[in-house]
Amino acid sequence: MQPATSLKRTPFTEFHRAAGAKLVEFAGFEMPVRYTGDVREHLAVRNAAGLFDITHMGEFEVRGAGASAWLDRMVTNHVGAIAVGQALYSPMCRPDGGIVDDLLVYRYDDHFMVVVNAANMAKDFAWLDAHRPADVTLVDRSAETALLAVQGPRAADIVRGHVPAAALDLGYYRFLTGELFGVPATISRTGYTGEDGFELYFAPAHGATVWQGLVDAGVPQGLELVGLGARDTLRLEMGYMLYGNDIDDTTSPLEAGLGWTVKLAKGDFHGRDVLVRQKAEGLRRKLVGFQLDGRRVPRHGMAIVSEGRPVGHVTSGTFSPSLERPIGMGYVEAPLAKVGTALEVQAGSTSLPARVTARPFHTRGSHRS
């Protein structure tokens, strides 16, 4: 934990304070973990809309004649296959197949933007820069970028009239540039909640204009401010991974169920040889979702047991506000990864019955595909 005086702040910190948010240290930033309560904020996103400050995420600008080919060597998904105005989700691996980070790649007319997890900014930039060829430039634009997300079934109604009309017709993982409350912005339709919504990138100097504009337009639609606590329960209900919990340098994309992001046919990339071998030989472990009865919540690091024998560990767990039951994810031996398999989670001296469940856990979201 860093002293409060040394923490980075976003352009919205004073708005968080005025709204009564509980601020905590997260990835070197002072961030709101909650405003009114995790469950209330979670359900607001599922039923109406939520406003998230995610300025702590990192943004790198990539330019040069070799940018596309280089990014394809750095990540597992196929950057060369995406069009201008399209975003791509991908792991970035080490030669041993471990995941350096999971990130987004945005393709603009004349450059790319790589969006990385806040806790990995320095590590990711160093990794990319160490492998950067002479015909590619890499610039960290994180400090020059504010980022807000509006998520929920009423998100489009909230931004309507305040963004270009074409933004409302964007498909999933598409983006455009245009004015947002009169401010130049990148308007993206990705998301980390399972609900429809927008990610809004713009200069920090315009923070007050955009924040107040979204609040004024959103409150009549049921918009609530949402902190990191509800963001975590929302993503876990969708089975989305959190770096450092569910994936890290010791896990491969195939083990994590991210095989759909691994394009072996595109050519060479970091980790390809290991992933080819894992696919050919079969996996020893897999990341699974599971549900428990009762109300006891599985916690990161708890042992997963089968017939009295440890077979894995919990990576994420919570009490799902939407399903009203405990859910979690964890790695187990591959033969035990089949949906319906009975397991136990060891919580101290108590064994909690669990059952492998298909992901996403929550299937009634509003996100567009």
General description of the model:
- This protein has about 375 residues and is an alpha+beta fold.
- The chain folds into three domains: about 5-55 and about 145-235, 2-Layer Sandwich (Gyrase A, domain 2), CATH 3.30.1360.120; about 60-140, Alpha-Beta Plaits; about 285-360 and about 365-369, Elongation Factor Tu (Ef-tu), domain 3, CATH 2.40.30.110.
- It has helices at about 15-20, 40-45, 65-75, 120-130, 155-160, 205-220, 230-235, 270-280; strands at about 20-25, 30-35, 50-55, 60-65, 85-95, 100-105, 110-115, 135-140, 145-150, 175-180, 185-190, 195-200, 225, 285-290, 305, 310-320, 325-335, 340-345, 350-355.
- Strands 10-11-12-9-3-13 form a six-stranded mixed β-sheet, sandwiched between helices. Strands 14-17-16-15-18-19 form a six-stranded antiparallel beta barrel.
- A hairpin with a 2-residue loop joins strand 18 and strand 19 (about 350-355).
- Helix 2 (about 40-45) crosses helix 7 (about 230-235).
- The longest helix is centred in the middle third of the chain and has 12 residues, at about 205-220.
- It is globular, with a radius of gyration of 21 Å.
Provide a quick synopsis of the model.
Helix content is 19%, strand content 33%. It is of the alpha+beta class.
Task: List strands and helices in order, with pairings.
Elements: H1 13-18, E1 22-26, E2 29-34, H2 38-47, E3 49-53, E4 58-63, H3 67-74, E5 87-93, E6 99-107, E7 112-116, H4 121-130, E8 137-140, E9 146-151, H5 155-159, E10 175-180, E11 183-188, E12 197-202, H6 207-218, E13 223-225, H7 228-237, H8 272-281, E14 285-292, E15 303-306, E16 309-320, E17 325-333, E18 342-347, E19 350-357
Parallel strand pairs: 3-13
Antiparallel strand pairs: 1-2, 3-9, 4-7, 4-8, 5-6, 6-7, 9-12, 10-11, 11-12, 14-17, 14-19, 15-16, 15-18, 16-17, 18-19
Helix pairs in contact: 2-7
